[in-house]
Amino acid sequence: MNRFWSDTVRNISPYIPGEQPKDKKYIKLNTNENPYPPSPKVIEAIRKETGSILRLYPDPEASFLKEALSDFYRLEPNQVFAGNGSDEVLAFCFPAFFNPGDIISFPEITYSFYPVYAKLYGIGYETVALNNDFTIDLDRFPGHVKGVLLANPNAPTGIAIGLNEIEAFINKHHDKLIIIDEAYVDFGAESAVPLVNDYENLLVVQTFSKSRSLAGLRIGFALGNKNLIEALNRVKNSFNSYTLDRIAQKAATAAIMDKEYFAGICGRIVKTREATAKKLISIGFNVLPSKANFLFVSHDKLSGRELFTRLKADGILVRHFDMKGIENFLRISIGTDEEMEILVDRLSSYVNPVR
Amino acid sequence: MNRFWSDTVRNISPYIPGEQPKDKKYIKLNTNENPYPPSPKVIEAIRKETGSILRLYPDPEASFLKEALSDFYRLEPNQVFAGNGSDEVLAFCFPAFFNPGDIISFPEITYSFYPVYAKLYGIGYETVALNNDFTIDLDRFPGHVKGVLLANPNAPTGIAIGLNEIEAFINKHHDKLIIIDEAYVDFGAESAVPLVNDYENLLVVQTFSKSRSLAGLRIGFALGNKNLIEALNRVKNSFNSYTLDRIAQKAATAAIMDKEYFAGICGRIVKTREATAKKLISIGFNVLPSKANFLFVSHDKLSGRELFTRLKADGILVRHFDMKGIENFLRISIGTDEEMEILVDRLSSYVNPVR
User: Fold this and answer.
1) N or C: more exposed end of chain A, with fewer CB within 10 A?
2) Phi then psi for A330, rounded to 5 degrees?
3) What does the pLDDT look like over B118-147, one tens digit per residue?
């Protein structure tokens, strides 16, 4: 603490991301990165931009990227906002759409950055308990809040809500802004993007960090009614004119245009996920039905903490959350088939030590 | 306007950066970019990082970059904060050190992003008029404010304050946070970095966009007492864990380590600036004494607007601010010798049309 710290700094509890180990080489299944490299066209686009031109500021509007995104999602460019990772895009939503003292709502168990943003911007929040099976009951969301923030699929459970249910919810709460965080949607869930033209209270946020294999470059985006996008632009342009650097813009544009590569790696990850889930169930693990690039698993006899520690000692990093209700779960990112085989083999040895 | 807009969005007036033209090729002297490419070692570092590794998140702490910066400036790594351009670093200062309702002070004519940040974060501000010769009179800063934000050299004038004067000011206002924005300091002004260990109320902000030729990659940093740096880290980690992507981190680290290249291009720019200033004075322009990589110039008979428009028609982009007191000035970035010769030739033809 220090005499120059603001009240905000005194009161916030920063988000703690999954570790990025520097000590040794792990099988890294802890931060939901893609096991496959970015498209070769992305690498080529970066190489072309690597030169003298880096002395010049990037396009503050990221126009080419917005055009590529609007083409891909069949929207207009003014329905697209781009930012420095979906974390930044989500952060901008708070001052863009809520006043200090307003209340927004999200599930009790979800991406743990949401309450951190709310505290940073002085926005209140109410959480909604999950059902016992970790599904979200949309009927439990309170009527008096100003907005709802839903990760779909939810994190860290991986459980998705169907599009019909989402649409009914947006319809019912037409007075509230509904923000759907679709960071993991490309691995088999239904996206709400097709609803963007029909509902002015819907904002969809996505990222290049998972399905586009570009966590290292920090690109996220939002899709919505042009008035919502304009609010985000106004906040961004009052914060940092150039949030997306030249290389990130070129890489993201190339990534979005290589539809075939994208479909290919998403398909492989889904296949690996399903096979891994099957094997884990067969050796006695509880596995939630995931539509994301991770599995949320527990075992009745071994604690989450113990499993986490033993895997780490065996060179496998997964994510464990010390939070009531999920303390016995591990969130395991989907790696390559080879990595998942090693994981299953290790887990199997813990639960059947005599084998 | 839209029913979902927050009060903040309704009330802010976003910053408008200098144009990044897409229509045709200009001699671009409008956004203070460096005319020389980044160090070859930067290009090499980027090439090495361009591959499969981009699928992984960057180091959220940017440890290698902070180490390189602390080596260069003879500080400890915990006295260094790094962000997505100095614009982001400056933006974080507002919620980190000031409460809504607090008042900070800066010169009336300075980087026009400062009041934009203040409005975004609900911080009040008081501006201090410049002297008639556009110098800053530090004695005019009010005693009751919570902090002072000074660009040194100042923008868009280019005029610098000496280190002795800065130190006396920090001493006198030991109860206030003094933030020195040294975006242009490497072109001949005195940096306040050597004071960082002596004053816990001093924060220095710098950027890779000007002297390091990396405007396209968006890297800025702050140097100060470790408690001030911790406050910035807490805000950043409540906003976006990974503000600096992999390539930006590697590029910036390589740039800071290539001291020789850096000294070389800064020296060339200073030489070109001095030669250009001399020529402009000789053809009748008023030129403020600049320690930055730009000149702030006016002519008694031709308006700033007219000069701007004629230069643009002739393929030269400079910056003109429609603001009382400086409406007759142009801010001209220092380009290569060849570019500046063309500029002087054009300006000369406007003031001596019969020549």
Assistant:
1) C
2) -115, 140
3) 999 999 999 999 999 999 999 999 999 999
Interface contact B12, partner A, CB < 8 A: yes
Biggest distance spanned by C-alpha atoms of chain A: 63
Q: How many Å apart are CA B195 and CA B175, to the nearest integer?
A: 16
Say if the ipTM goes beyond 0.90.
yes
Q: What percent of chain B has pLDDT over 70?
A: 99
SS3 state of residue A223: strand
Is A57 in contact with B95 (Cβ distance < 8 A)?
Answer: no
Chain segment B136-177, per-residue pLDDT in tens: 999 999 999 999 999 999 999 999 999 999 999 999 999 999
Q: Does A103 touch chain B (CB under 8 A)?
A: no
Where a domain ends, among A258, A289, A309?
A258
End position of a domain, from candidates A217, A243, A258: A258
* Side chain identity, residue B190: E
Report the Cα B312 to chain-centroid distance in Å.
24
**B299 token code pair:** 């002519």
Query: B252, B335, B261, B344: which is closest to B297 by C-alpha?
Result: B344
Query: Is the domain of B31 the same as that of B156?
Result: no
Q: If you average pLDDT over every residue of chain B, what do you get?
A: 96
Domain range enclosing B127: 40-257
The answer on A44 and A31 residing in a single domain is no
Closest of A10, A321, A319, A290 to residue A160, by C-alpha: A290
- Tell me the whole-structure pTM to 2 decimals: 0.97
pLDDT tens digits, A13-35: 999 888 877 777 899 999 999 99
